[in-house]
Amino acid sequence: MPLSRRDFLLAGTAAGATIGVGVLVPLGFVLADDDDANGATGASLATFPRARVGSVSSLGVGDAQFFDYPYEGTPNVLVKLGERVPGGVGPDNDIVAYSNLCTHMGCPITTYEADSHTLGPCPCHFSSFDLSRDGIVGFGQATQNLARILLEVDGDGIYALGVYRLIYGHADNLAGEDLVVVSEGV
Amino acid sequence: MAGTGSGRVPLPPTDAVVKTTVCEYCPVACGYKVYTWPVGDEGGTSAADNALGVDFPTTTLSGRWISETMHNVVRVNGERHNVVVLPDPDADVVNVGGTHSVRGGELAQKVYTPDGLTADRLTKPLLRVNGTLVPISWDMATDLVAELSTHTIAEHGELAWGMKIYSYQYYENVFAGSKLALGAIETPNYSPHHAPAEGDDVPGLSDCGIDAFSAAFADDAAAEVLFIAGSDPYETKTVRFTTWQQPGGATIVYVDPRRTFTANYAENSGGLHLQIVPGTDTALYMAIARVIVENNWWDDDFVSQHTASRGELDAEGKWRRVEFGRSFDQFREWITSTPEFALDRASEITGVPADKITRAAELISGGSGAQPKTTVLFEKGVYWSHNYENTAAIGNLGLLVGASGREGRATSRMGGHQRGGQKAAGYPIDKSPDEYDGHKLEMDTERWLVQGNTRFRWVVGTNWLGAMGATDALRKAVVELKAKGPEVTSTRYETALEQLKAQIDAGGLVIVHQEIYENDSTPYADIVLPAATWGEEDFARNNAERRLRIYEKFMDPPGEARPDWQIFAEVGRKMGFDGFDWPDTNAIFEEASEKSSGGRRDYAALVEKAKADGMRGHDLLRTFGTTGLQTPLSLEGGELVETVRRHADLQFNSDSGKANFVFADWDAVATRNEILGPDPSKDEVWVLNGRVNAVWNNMFDFVRRQNSVERWPSNFLEINPADADARGIVNGDLLSIESDGVLDQLGRAHKGGFTAVAYVSDIVPPGVTFTYFMYPGSPANNITSADSSLQPLNLRYNFKLGKGSITNLGPSGLAESMSFAPRNLAPGASS
User: Does residue A125 lie within any of the structural domains?
Assistant: First the structure.
């Protein structure tokens, strides 16, 4: 079942938390789940390619597979968490994908600890990211969550549809004029 | 607005204004560049079309990527401007190549935005009328502060007038505030944000003759062995670890009750983690020293040439050095005859296996081989558990292995905040009511206040109530004092003044709170003064390696907010004091240079050179950019000469010029541990507290930072899985932590507590828990004692030795959304 943008993103407009002395702080982190999405999104999805990045049948719980998107040479990690999460796709709503370029200084992270859903520590400055919590910096020095890949499942295929949040190195995810866009899937 | 996930940030155009600054937060103090340009303009992705001079996308480790949180929109001269605060990619000191921590990396989220998360900055002076804070004019506000101050001093004496002020928030502000309080009013009722009393935070180390900030970061890199205690450098002094300590390749011996990132890094990299029972540092360090002494592994050349004899100690002018100083022979006799410092007994006390104690001794001394370059570094876990004894013990250890004055060899604090404490006048200690054995001590201003002796307190740039021990008890005392005398019922000056004077005369307490945001202390304030801060004025200060740099103004302060120095100056003038007529912050910087002379911060040579060159002091400092200059400075042939490390001449801070060992009374420590430690009969555990990576101090900025609040939507309590299982606790449960054995400011047992979300992790051992120290609404200091008489040599709190029993209040609702990921994954793990 294809997943729409509204299922993926973003409850920043609806969620809030009162902290301490009464300061109201919006909590963009609180992702909308399937049943209560509000349609808000900041991603410029329409112009990203749709590309096949994996298959449900070959992705086991705890696996980490790597693919390029939206440009060739721009790496990402695809994992099946084994735990239903907001924005997770597949029959168990637990398949997610993120740019694996560290949002600290851009080093690729390939270490994945499945038990805690942690990508990292980064080989450069040791940041690690929680892939079950929207790619938040669980510990370390990066200044934003990992860029998240918007996915859908069609049959056995897992498809990337777009990117939410800035990919390391870019000023505009869609302004890679000199980069080669990955092939569109079917 | 930044951080929206939009997948783009505007690039600074080639004509963007570029300013130099330094991170606001940790003592490493990375250099930053600030780019501002009008909203509507934008640079291009080609190198020729943007101010960074780089093609986008940028490359790995370029130091020139702007994350979404490095951008914001501010007002410059009233107009909307983009701002990018970028770690200086050209830095060749501190954060070489533009690396950064998560704290500094998001500095752009700190700035005032009238329509963003920082919109609640204080913007107008306020007066509490009929219980509500209402706006008044600056003129009326400073009239009130000046008149009430004059009245308090005239009617009740200068000890009834107190100032509680940051020790670090830039030379210019500290100088102006201390010029008023210490120089003009001459009150001893003056204390810093972190302690009940003025004075030395590391007196034992100082009595060894060692400067607390003697090391350079280059020493960390040059060291072959790093002995690090009481602070995780990766977590809280990040770039010092990632740029200097870790790449330097030293073997790390790391002391911490928690198995933090650096603990795992050390163990995975050929070093050691000494997982110490809280409060037992003195026994551990002296046990290591005893192994070194018994095996003849000490640095005999250093010890014999540079530590004092008994005769030299007896001739010292400082009484503590005479009384507690020890020659090497006395030191050896003491540690080898103290049963608790024997290997097996020390192992029982500290919880550190005997073979690890021996191995640590061998590593830092070189054992029977060549002596390595060893550097000894520590911070608050050491000196805010047992202040004098622990700082003496770690100083002794440093001296024993010759860790001082030479490349790669230092004994030093790592620092908690940056170093901006350039005061204008000495502390009037003769007026202090506190003493030890006939020797005057800086006064415990919190005890004095609770006793009803302070009638006027000016709280400047600190969350006073949350930051002191036994917070609840202090708050209750304040509430009782505030109930005395009439309420202010009018915004008219004469009426308000008379009513506030009547409060003072009735034995009450008038509180002035000068801040950038409201905090836990604001509800008790009578007058609130809005301050301008980082980025809103030109300031200067040092980092932990004594590197002096300028922090340039790049944007407007919010509303009517004024920099602290201006407020002190106006009140000083209205009180009739001379010397408060500075035209700008540079004038204070230049005046303060004279007071810095001869000390660690000495930058008099900079100002002297500036004047000789026809420049302002700030302007000459600006030419050194984010590199700055390491103080103390001197002039040789008209050129500035820096000091890379202290004691490079192997002269120490004593009359003889020699260092010395210092007696650390284990019996006093053990007695204090009995009082402060957990009571098993009440099912209590240790409740330690400290900083965490993603937030800074009382979260004055970070509670308004989206990423930080997403990571920490609540305070947390790390609890070992065994302790959690025994109490039926799982991740995300809301816990009540309470103790009825908290000692208040007068030494009375008091019940205090706080709540926090369970974070189940073996980062803490059974019987030990850990929490963030000042999360808004979760005051961990409610369970830390505030009885400074426990440490009579130097009136400090035992912040790091909290205790409590834990009750599960049920699910917090955060189990599914908050991350409970491990926070200590280090590279090279074998399992």
Answer: yes
- Our count of domains for chain A comes to 1
Annotation marks residue A125 as catalytic: yes
Cβ of B706 and A26 within 8 Å?
yes
Concerning whether A117 is annotated as a catalytic residue, the answer is no
Show residues of chain B in contact with A121, CB under 8 Å.
825-827
Render pLDDT for B224-268 as a digit per residue (tens, 0 to 9): 999 999 999 999 999 999 999 999 999 999 999 999 999 999 999
Q: Say yes or no for a CB contact (<8 Å) between B8 and A171.
A: yes
Hey, where are the domains in chain B? Answer: 17-109, 126-198+444-592, 214-414, 604-641, 667-811
Nearest to B56 among A121, A143, A170 (CB): A170
ipTM: 0.96
Q: What are phi and psi of A84, to 5 degrees?
A: -60, 130
Proportion of chain B above pLDDT 70, given as a percent: 99
Q: Is the CB of B8 inside 8 Å of chain A's CB atoms?
A: yes
Per residue in B180-198, pLDDT (tens digit) is 999 999 999 999 999 999 9
pLDDT in tens, A155-169: 999 999 999 999 999
- B126-198+444-592 to CATH, choices 3.20.20.150, 3.40.50.740, 1.10.101.10, 3.40.50.720: 3.40.50.740
Domain B17-109: top CATH class: mainly beta
Q: Which residues contact B311 (CB under 8 A, 6 or more apart)?
A: none
Count the neighbouring beta carbons within 10 Å of the beta carbon of residue A29.
24
Contact list, B821 vs chain A (CB under 8 Å): 116-118, 128, 130, 133, 138-139
In CATH terms, the fold of domain B214-414 is Dimethylsulfoxide Reductase; domain 2 (3.40.228)
Residue A171 domain-assigned?
Answer: no
Average pLDDT score, chain B: 97
Class of B667-811 in CATH: mainly beta
Q: B55 Cβ partners below 8 Å, 6+ apart? A: B45, B46, B47
Q: Contact A113/B822, CB-based, under 8 Å? A: yes
Q: Is residue A15 part of a domain?
A: no
Q: Give the CATH number of the domain where residue A125 resides.
A: 2.102.10.10
Closest CA to B802 of B769, B763, B765: B769
CA distances from B102 to B11, B25, B337 (A): 21, 11, 48
Range of the domain at A147: 47-164
